Amino acid sequence: MAKPFIKPVITPREAAAYAAPGKSLMVGGFNYGGAPYTIIEALCDSGVKDIDLICVDTSYFQTKVPGPVGVARLVTNGQLRSLVASHIGLNKKTQELYTSGKLKIELIPMGTFVERIRAGGAGLGGILTPTGVDTVYEEGRETVELDGRRYILERPLRADTAFIRAYKADAAGNLVYYGTNRNFNPTMATAATRVVAEVDEVVPLGEIDPNNVVTPGIFIDALVLKGDGEYASRT
């Protein structure tokens, strides 16, 4: 019998190195919930720029201490080339860059956002949605009429790399989630060429009930332990 493929457990810095200038990157989570903070911190430290980020929001930016949180640091560091998101209302810096034309941003409804990613993971050519029809959002977008109703054709979203957050993994990369970790992370895990999951712990094979697995290990390329090494006090 063939042995199961064991996923490598890498350092946060090794994970961050997968993000490259001009490449697309998905990051899971919504504000504080379900974000892979350890990998994000390493990515900020790496200084890599010109990232095409796909993330539902740009987290929270405070003008006072402690300052930007999570993905917000990527914004304030000037590490993004473009952004696809649904919510930038908690980050004044993102708003400033957007309104001044210094950061290209595509704002899309949250349901449309996740369905475009799901379509990308499933290999679909796109989705049809009535959301945004007859609004400014429709401008410049292709529409289709079916059975007397008009829909916007939304193209699938995929990325070169995805950084996601889960609660626990086994050695083969099968993931289970806890609470709000299970927001955009399972969907993003299906829609990237390379997927790195940040987890609280990695347990031996057989310790996770197969019925509890949400993301099968076939989607996962590597694992990072939350708060690993130098990031223990920062996440």
UniProtKB/TrEMBL annotation:
Residues spanning the membrane: none
Per UniProt, the keywords (alphabetical) are: Transferase
Keyword Lyase on entry: no
GO MF annotation list:
CoA-transferase activity
SUPFAM superfamilies recorded for this chain?
A: NagB/RpiA/CoA transferase-like
Q: Which Pfam families match?
A: CoA_trans
The family database entries (InterPro entries) matched by this protein are listed as: 3-oxoacid_CoA-transf_A (IPR012792), CoA_trans_fam_I (IPR004165), NagB/RpiA_transferase-like (IPR037171)
- Spell out the NCBIfam families in the cross-references: pcaI_scoA_fam
Q: What is this protein called?
A: Branched-chain amino acid dehydrogenase
Naturally occurring in which organism (per UniProt): Cloacibacillus porcorum
